[in-house]
């Protein structure tokens, strides 16, 4: 391995310097534990949530070599080189490939559409570099450039398609230093069932902050052409239609649709089940060679159809053309339906009802940032599957003792503590919160032949 790295360094000095600079930058990033799982949990059920995108810290020689191989394959693969030469957002592509093997296959199979549209406001230039699109999804690759070195960008906001509101949107958020030069990222548009992809995407974007002294809030607008001939008819459908039972809970797997950028699997939960099934820990699609394609971890991972039905999204194996396919899982997070409510006595600062004694109330306080109330919980959990997982415990909807419904607009977590923010209001205590995910499980081998 060392010889290979030395040989590459000797013949590609400039590229090696770029890789070393990338490594040094990554090593300085403070990475929260299990960011992938936090993204997965936060975006479950198809809600639009912004999550901070970070690169995993890479400190070992082996990890550096893996990054080297990955970047080299993107730069020098014959099917990809034509795009990399013209698309500035190389690092965004590398990062995205690192997360999703299905998107890597799509790029390697000439599926990227180049765009190259730019617009500038207040010294900030945004360039739409390219898109990946199929009949269910469009991923927009973009680059931000700090033209005069003075402006700041905090986060994207109000990202939408002006000519198509029937979409769910996922996009990352990044920290920007005072001296940032350029940043790359992606915007993921999930088109709802029955919604066609338009031939022109009318993208509109705003930012939280462009300039501390700016008096306006400009909108970056792009009319992005979509070549629908690249993906029309490119999908495969499998009617699984099989029901399994795990610890008495019935689950039916319906139709699976394989698109070039992702796989959608219909899942139905028997209304007569005694437990609420939150999420599969290890569900995956596996081919005859043992190659696995797991659920999407950096984007929209599921969409609700109804209270008992949803579509789970997996990384796509469309371009690998497997001979055999299996659906496999062994662990599902679930809880008795009569334990799904948590009651908080605001006056006495105590829990009146909780799923089990692992959940405790640490504090009932007020946020110093915006004056909202904040409920701080502690979740003690030593399960091996949860070693690096941070839970999104509760639904955004809660109610007080009068039955009045409210919406929480913010949550947070630090290690084993969870913060749930509540509106400024006159509440009739206690408050009732609804459990959305929890470290309790049912176990059983699921092994279904798909193809």
Automatic annotation (TrEMBL):
<dbReference type="Pfam" id="PF18705">
    <property type="entry name" value="DUF5643"/>
</dbReference>
<dbReference type="Pfam" id="PF13786">
    <property type="entry name" value="DUF4179"/>
</dbReference>
<keyword id="KW-0472">Membrane</keyword>
<feature type="domain" description="DUF5643">
    <location>
        <begin position="236"/>
        <end position="343"/>
    </location>
</feature>
<dbReference type="InterPro" id="IPR025436">
    <property type="entry name" value="DUF4179"/>
</dbReference>
<feature type="transmembrane region" description="Helical">
    <location>
        <begin position="54"/>
        <end position="74"/>
    </location>
</feature>
<keyword id="KW-0812">Transmembrane</keyword>
<dbReference type="InterPro" id="IPR040680">
    <property type="entry name" value="DUF5643"/>
</dbReference>
<protein>
    <recommendedName>
        <fullName>DUF4179 domain-containing protein</fullName>
    </recommendedName>
</protein>
<keyword id="KW-1133">Transmembrane helix</keyword>
<feature type="domain" description="DUF4179">
    <location>
        <begin position="52"/>
        <end position="144"/>
    </location>
</feature>
């Amino acid at each position: 391995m060392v010889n290979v790295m030395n040989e590459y360094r000797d013949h590609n000095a400039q590229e090696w310097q770029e890789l070393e600079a990338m490594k040094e930058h990554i090593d300085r990033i403070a990475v929260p534990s299990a960011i992938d799982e936090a993204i997965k949990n936060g975006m479950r059920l198809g809600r639009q949530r912004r999550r901070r995108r970070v690169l995993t810290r890479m400190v070992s020689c082996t990890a550096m070599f893996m990054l080297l191989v990955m970047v080299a394959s993107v730069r020098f693969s014959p099917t990809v080189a034509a795009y990399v030469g013209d698309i500035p957002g190389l690092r965004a592509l590398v990062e995205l490939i690192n997360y999703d093997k299905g998107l890597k296959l799509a790029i390697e199979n000439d599926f990227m559409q180049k765009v190259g549209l730019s617009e500038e406001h207040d010294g900030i230039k945004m360039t739409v570099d390219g898109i990946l699109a199929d009949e269910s999804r469009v991923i927009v690759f973009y680059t931000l450039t700090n033209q005069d070195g003075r402006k700041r960008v905090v986060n994207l906001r109000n990202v939408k398609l002006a000519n198509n509101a029937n979409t769910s949107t996922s996009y990352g958020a990044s920290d920007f230093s005072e001296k940032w030069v350029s940043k790359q990222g992606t915007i993921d548009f999930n088109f709802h069932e029955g919604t066609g992809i338009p031939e022109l995407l009318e993208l509109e974007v705003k930012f939280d902050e462009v300039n501390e002294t700016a008096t306006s809030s400009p909108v970056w607008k792009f009319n992005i052409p979509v070549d629908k001939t690249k993906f029309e008819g490119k999908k495969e459908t499998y009617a699984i239609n099989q029901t399994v039972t795990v610890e008495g809970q019935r689950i039916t797997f319906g139709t699976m649709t394989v698109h070039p950028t992702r796989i959608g699997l219909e899942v139905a939960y028997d209304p007569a089940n005694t437990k609420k099934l939150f999420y599969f820990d290890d569900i995956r699609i596996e081919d005859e060679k043992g190659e696995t394609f797991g659920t999407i971890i950096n984007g929209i991972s599921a969409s609700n159809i109804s209270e008992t039905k949803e579509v789970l999204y997996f990384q796509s194996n469309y371009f690998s053309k497997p001979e055999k396919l299996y659906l496999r899982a062994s662990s599902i997070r679930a809880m008795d339906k009569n334990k799904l409510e948590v009651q908080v006595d605001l006056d006495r600062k105590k829990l009146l009802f909780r799923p089990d004694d692992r959940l405790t109330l640490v504090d009932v306080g007020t946020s110093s940032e915006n004056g909202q109330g904040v409920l701080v919980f502690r979740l003690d959990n030593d399960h091996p599957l949860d070693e690096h997982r941070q839970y999104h415990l509760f639904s955004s909807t809660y109610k007080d003792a009068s039955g009045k419904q409210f919406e929480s607009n913010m949550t947070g977590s630090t290690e084993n503590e969870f913060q749930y923010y509540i509106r400024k209001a006159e509440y009739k205590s206690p408050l009732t919160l609804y459990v959305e995910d929890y470290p309790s499980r049912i176990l059983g081998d699921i092994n279904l032949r798909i193809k």
